[in-house]
Amino acid sequence: xxxxxxxxxxxxxxxLAVLCLAVxxxxxxxxxxxxxxxxxxxxWDDANFSPDGxxxxxxxxxxxxxxxxxxxxxxxxxxxxxxxxxxxxxxTIKSGRRLQLQxxxxxxxxxxxxxxxxxxxxxxxxxxxxxxxxxxITGTGEFTILSGANNRDITISSQIxxxxxxxxxxxxxxxxGSPTKNEFLNLTNGSNSFGGTWNIEEGLLWGSTAGGLGxxxxxxxxxxxxxxxxxxxxxxxxxxxxxxxxxxLDQALTFGSATINGTPIAAGTYTASQLNSTFGIDLATFExxxxxxxxxxxxxxxxxxxxxxxxxxxxxxxVMVRRRS
Length: 325
What we know:
- The protein is mainly beta.
- The protein folds into 2 domains: 29-229; 252-325, no CATH class.
- 13% of the residues lie in helices and 35% in strands.
- It is built from 3 helices and 25 strands.
- It has helices at 11-22, 272-279, 304-324, and strands at 31-34, 49-50, 71-74, 78-80, 90-93, 98-101, 105-108, 112-115, 119-122, 128-131, 135-138, 141-146, 154-156, 160-162, 166-172, 184-187, 197-207, 217-220, 224-228, 232-241, 246-248, 252-260, 263-264, 268-270, 295-298.
- The protein has an 18-stranded mixed beta sheet that branches.
- β22 (252-260) and β23 (263-264) form a beta hairpin.
- The longest helix has 21 residues, at 304-324.
């Protein structure tokens, strides 16, 4: 006889059904690509992203704006900020592309990544601040931070990390044509870990917070200016100041090597006046050199062959001790 009795669902069946309903809401993040640069008045709040990076692709979820747990990629020109926090889970600026700080105030982006060859620019008059939970520079090559005009200072409070293959970060603030502290880039996160070279092409690179400039080297060009508001030490780093470039020497700075105005600086510790009297360095290289209280210390970094010789001697000593015992 056919049994038409309906069985009640078990607890296990109900739990499985609930789980199946819940799964679609987990891990639904997708990657959206910027369609194009957009007009001058556009920003990251506009619906200019799609799954395939074309104007005909499906729009971003619901409103067409960045949001949710989705990842966003700028591989199509310039992406401009707005007065709101970037709503996506992450933002990547591809090589050759730009994140332009347009909003007068603070723009916040979490999980921000720049590929080598990309850049940050201040795109409008007035000071701008970039914040977030992290700014990573990835790949091989260089990265650039620039203003493009005067009165466009940039402050970055995000923690900056960089791959060891990022050789240098170029700083190009203002178009004065001579060293000035009025056009600056200020790094305020004390946990920054960049270990390459800060190449100061124009304007001021300002380390207002201890650790803000990482453990790095510095190349100050004829229109560049360097100011660290804390004692800095990198015994493997290099300081190069080209004739015309300037340094605020009011802290204790330590490097493995230094060349100032074309003159190599021998190992030792020197004030601005001692650099002038010992090596003939123009006092105009240093801000307020006459009253400067800072110093530059140059340590002798052994050549690789010296390390090899030392290792060999240690090895020989170990063998001799073993034989005696």
